Amino acid sequence: MSTLQPVRGTHDLLPEEMRRHRAVIERARGVAERYGFEEIATPIFEFTDVFKRTLGDTSDIVTKEMYSFSLKEGEEITLRPENTAGVARALISNGLHQSLPLKYFYSGPMFRHERPQKGRQRQFHQIGVELLGAPQPQADIEVIALGRHILQELGILQDTVLELNTLGDLDSRKAYRAALVSYFETRQDELSEDSRMRLTRNPLRILDSKDEGDRRVVEDAPAFEAYLNETSRDFFAQVCRGLDALEIPYTLNSRLVRGLDYYSHTAFEFTSDRLGAQSAVVAGGRYDGLVETMGGPSTPGIGWAAGIERLAMLVRDVDSPPRPVAVIPVGDASEATALKLTQDLRHQGFAVELGYSGNLKKRMKRANQMNARAAVMIGEDELKAGEATLRDLDSGAQETLALDAIGTRLRELV
User: Is the pLDDT of residue 200 over 90?
Assistant: First the structure.
């Protein structure tokens, strides 16, 4: 019988990796709270229509990457491939429009059936933020500043570059789309099969194609800037001025796009060259038409998402777990007292390990293997006197103390 393995594209988060994973979430959550973002959690599966409406029936995610299945009742549901649609659906379902603007932070697993590679799994995890109900460019500035602040708190800001672009308003996008289609149609034979399919349904996605042939064609494509109207130019100028005022450096990237029509104005990514092909660390943008696309009232929005696995790969310093205290009963008579002392010390806030078996030598060896800070030993003599012997495992010094004084002395050591 073959050894059971995790499903391809999934992996176990063992303690060391879990510490890095958790550090990303906890630090990000803490920074987000300072910006007024409250935590939200939506179900990991939604009705499939939630994603078909938002991602488009012909997008790669919908046609190739979603994990969808039917319930007995005949309803089709999908494991979430991203979380913005779920947050927007929650806004509509819970009637939250009277409370706008709303600021949300989230974390959790997402699912996409794609080729696994470094920094990309079929079950992966994201943190993200959504700011709903704020049409002003100040919202874009704040959301970008928050993403940067989190990267700074994680100690990886120096490994990233902020790339920025504008997608303009709907009128600008329509004009640019028409120009782009006209250009690509003249060079259609040079495009990859995927890009030829995108030409009729989502031509902006050709601009960020990774295919070398497509890239050569894209080099001569019309520039978005030439099709921006005054409203779009002014909005983007305000975003740039705000970032400048906060001394947030950025690089303009006219090829940074979002393909769906509900995206508008600001698009941005924090990228890193430490991750190989998967360079995007934080990716976001403004999506003023999303909620309306889902059947809700017109609601401006902007947000970003970041892959926890990718961030964890970049993080260098993660706090080690607290060094434990080992409580060691010497002899069967001491077991009950050792058990009670262990529980008392845990309630006082200490990490405590009580060995389940073995003589004093074996238990001390185990204490050293777990890098314990101190050992508390209770033998027959200590038991009679209501005391315990406390050994500092760093210095080797030891002393005998009353049982109710152990916690006070440990607080001085740990």
Answer: no
Q: Are residues 287 and 404 in the same domain?
A: no
Q: Which helix (H) or strand (E) holds 149?
A: helix 137-153
User: Residues 54-63: contacts with CB within 8 Å, 24+ apart?
Assistant: 54/84, 54/85, 54/88, 54/260, 54/262, 54/290, 54/293, 54/294, 55/81, 55/82, 55/85, 55/260, 56/201, 56/202, 56/259, 56/260, 58/197, 58/201, 58/202, 59/202, 59/259, 59/260, 61/112
* Residue 366 identity (one-letter amino acid): R
Same domain, 92 and 118: yes
Question: Range of 355's domain?
Answer: 325-413
Number of structural domains the chain divides into: 2
Tell me the percentage of the chain whose pLDDT exceeds 70: 96
Question: Cα separation of 121 and 398, whole Å?
Answer: 50
**Residue 259, pLDDT score:** 66
- Mean pLDDT check: name the lowest of 48-62, 109-123, 186-200: 48-62
Same domain for 69 and 119?
yes
Q: Do 151 and 233 lie in a common domain?
A: yes
Residue 59 has pLDDT above 70, yes or no: no
Q: What residues have CB less than 8 Å from 273, skipping those under 6 apart?
A: 159, 279
For 308-397, list the strands marked E by DSSP: 325-329, 352-354, 374-378, 387-392
Task: Judge contact between 331 and 380, C-beta under 8 A.
Answer: yes
At 360, the pLDDT band (50, 70, 90 cuts) reads: confident
* Mean pLDDT along residues 143-147: 98
CA dihedral over 246, 248, 253, 256, signed as positive or negative: negative
Residue 277: per-residue pLDDT? 62
CATH number at residue 329: 3.40.50.800
* Strand ranges across the sheet with 123-132: 38-39, 102-111, 123-132, 301-307, 280-286, 264-272, 160-166, 251-252
**CA 154 – CA 131 distance, rounded (Å):** 22
Q: CB-based contacts of 113: which residues, under 8 Å, 6+ apart?
A: 9, 64, 65, 66, 67, 122
Q: By the 8 A CB rule, do 165 and 254 touch?
A: yes
CATH number of the domain to which 131 belongs: 3.30.930.10
C-alpha to C-alpha distance for 101 and 300, rounded to whole angstroms: 9
Q: Which amino acid type is present at position 99?
A: S
